[in-house]
Description:
The protein is mostly helical.
Amino acid sequence: MRHIKLFVQAGIGIAIILWLLQFTGVSWVLDVILDLNLLYIILASFLFTTASTMVSLALFIALKHLGQKPPLRKVIMASFGGQLLSDITPARSGYFVTPFILNKISNTSIKSGMAGVVATGVINFLTKATISAIALAYFVKFLPLTPAMVNALFLGILLLIAGSLGLSMFMWRKHPNKLFERLMKIKLIGRVISKFKVLSNIQEEGQKVKGCLLHMSILIVLSTVTNAIALYFISTALGHPIYLLDLILIVPLVGALMYAPITIAGLGIQETGYVVFLTLLGMPPEKATAFALITRFLFTGTDIIGLQPLLKIGFKVSEKNRNGFADGINN
């Protein structure tokens, strides 16, 4: 059943991409891509890699505060592996495999690794939700956004807020088990919540990581800005540069659509968001579509650095490994 769901989500995402190409003209989009300035694309790739590395550094800082001493290189590799998996999983949930990768390649405690990943996720969600709310208020005032688009973006912001609050409760609520018991009684979400019950055992680690949240937040903000600069270079490569401030606001706002569980990592949905915003900002539709496709390709392509650790542990965690994963968190 799970495989069928993933197949359907992938199909929906591909269908949206094909619709965008048909809407803007496949031949025109191809002409735009073939006419790219490759120097700017190389710079954008470097900046995407730098932004992902900053997320890895935030995780490394958390692990240091938790008394773990994995080599920085291995933390970066594990984080890239998790980010690569998140690029091809619904709601980017694949990043929660990062502690398992880290344990495999550096013998880092899974419980500490999970605490670091959850803390990074909380900061990431809160940062993006805050900037997205500001961005939506700004763009609604100056751009003729349709009600459907505003509602979709607002829903994306709500998903970010819900994610940050949910992970925060797992980390810092005094009695998380009671919370789980209540949520498990809700039929619609009980099945989903049960999969993450292991997170109820990381409160002790969560208290330790509080001391480095500010440093982690700075790195996450810098990562967001770096991604925006990368997008600026992509727009420049297309011959239609967009103001950097607009892109700083657009990155988390459109990025929130990646967490919509309709497609894999928001495939097609995020691209539609970019096309809408960029055309409203004056970019021709064919260039806006090329921009969205190139961004997706580079964003995922630069995370290919994490393929090696993923291959080392295997893409699919067996039932036996999942049980061991849960036991590792409990220990």
